[in-house]
Amino acid sequence: MWTAKDIPDQSGRMVLITGANSGVGYESAVALAQKGARVVMAVRSMDKGQKARQELLKRASGASVDLMALDLGSLKSVRAFAENFNAQYDRLDVLMNNAGIMAPPYRQTEDGFESQFGTNHLGHFALTGLLLPRLLETPKSRIVTVSSSAYLLGRMNFEDLQSEKGYRPTRAYNQSKLANILFAQELQRRLDRAGADVISVASQPGYAVTNLQNDQRGIANYTLYPLLRLLMSHPADVGATYQLYAATAPDVRGGDYYEPKRTLVGEVVRSEMNARGKNAADAARLWAISEQLTGVTINVSVRERVS
Ligand SMILES: NC(=O)c1ccc[n+]([C@@H]2O[C@H](COP(=O)([O-])OP(=O)(O)OC[C@H]3O[C@@H](n4cnc5c(N)ncnc54)[C@H](OP(=O)(O)O)[C@@H]3O)[C@@H](O)[C@H]2O)c1
Fold first, then answer.
1. How far is the CA of 138 from the centre of ligand 1 (A)?
2. Which of these, 166, 20, 195, lies nearest to 95 by C-alpha position?
3. Ligand 1 atom with the shortest distance to the CA of 180
4. Is the CB of 210 under 6 A from ligand 1?
5. I want to staple 18 with a disulfide (CB 3.0 to 4.6 A). Which of 99, 144, 155, 245 is the partner?
6. Tens of pLDDT along 246-298?
7. Which of 173, 225, 245, 257 is catalytic?
8. Residue ranges per domain, the chain?
9. Contact of 179 with 233, CB cutoff 8 Å
10. How far is 117 from 97, CA to CA, in rounded Å?
């Protein structure tokens, strides 16, 4: 079974991980730093980030790890982050779109988007667009977007993408995770058309015991999740395996999707997406809407242009 120990040497590579202070994002940061990558931990709370960085350095002493503030629920913050990143670093080998929230009570992001659609999808859409110049300049770079098996239950409700007519927390989560899959695929199609050697890959961590479930209030919190945690879960470091494989294994191809063999647990496998995940028309429609909502237009071309 492939584990983080099998990650090839990452010396000289620059990795950016969103939500790197907790859960599978934190464990990805530790594993990549241990293998010699320079890691930028993008965090929404600098206090939590400082603590996580200190803990990380205990496990990867001497590692090169920077901390930067990023709130994916604020386009202003995403733009400021990208500006700082592009000014400070001249390469980006791996962008790991990892941060996420699951099934919170209804709230809106700073820009008025439903929080899960806004944070999990739109924030990462804008971030990727604004960092694409660096990714295109870096040979064989990768964008890894972390989804969930919940995408299997997701439907794109284009009539009410932002749950304005009615909010069901889990339904909105599932849709946001399907949006991650559609985005990763559409990005790869555009990279292919442009002849770029950047690849876009998706993954999902199975059931990893992290802070993700803390915000939920539903009945599943008292029934399904404790049961699954007992029977079919793994710790966060194992949950990070799938995105680490996507980020570093030599045989990964653009458009691939990596997950645990038994969906919630098991060895890393390359999986087929379901029909909704592969729906190119939905992906193109979501892309156009995302450009409109975020104001970030992503033109992937050999000489890329981001406005
Ligand atoms: N754990 C699982 O079983 C599981 C299953 C399927 C998919 N996933 C996916 O895995 C990814 C990581 O989740 P996790 O399980 O590691 O959960 P986690 O421990 O709760 O970590 C989530 C991270 O995202 C950050 N975050 C949340 N909102 C943000 C925002 N507005 N801006 C920037 N960062 C933000 C959190 O920051 P704070 O610490 O400040 O809140 C935290 O660092 C998510 O995309 C999730 O959907 C997880």
1. 27
2. 20
3. 45
4. yes
5. 99
6. 999 999 999 999 999 999 999 999 999 999 999 999 999 999 999 999 999 99
7. 173
8. 10-294
9. no
10. 14
Element (H, E) at 43: strand 38-43
73 lines ligand 1 (CB under 6 A): yes
DSSP output for 218-286: SGGGTTHHHHHHHHS-EEHHHHTHHHHHHHH-TT--TT-EEEETTSSSSSEEE----TTTT-HHHHHHH
Helical residues (DSSP H) of the chain, grouped into ranges: 23-34, 46-59, 75-88, 115-116, 124-137, 169-194, 224-231, 236-239, 241-248, 280-294
167 is catalytic: no
Please tell me the residue having the least CA distance from ligand 1 atom 47.
Answer: 100
The radius of gyration computed from the CA coordinates of the chain, to the nearest angstrom, equals: 18
Q: Which atom of ligand 1 is nearest to the CA of 21?
A: 43
| 281's tokens | 């028309």
- Indicate the CATH number for domain 10-294: 3.40.50.720
CB of 124 within 6 A of ligand 1: the answer is: no
Across the chain, mean pLDDT equals 95
Q: Name the closest-CA residue to atom 42, ligand 1.
A: 19
pLDDT of residue 307: 46
Block residue for tokens 């960085």? 53
Q: Counting beta carbons within 10 angstroms of the beta carbon of residue 166, is it exposed (0 to 12), middle (13 to 18) or buried (19 or more)? A: exposed
pLDDT tens digit sequence for 6-48: 999 999 999 999 999 999 999 999 999 999 999 999 999 999 9
Give the C-alpha separation, 72 to 91, whole Å. 21
Three-state DSSP string of 205-237: CCCEECCHHHHCCCHHHCCHHHHHHHHCCEEHH
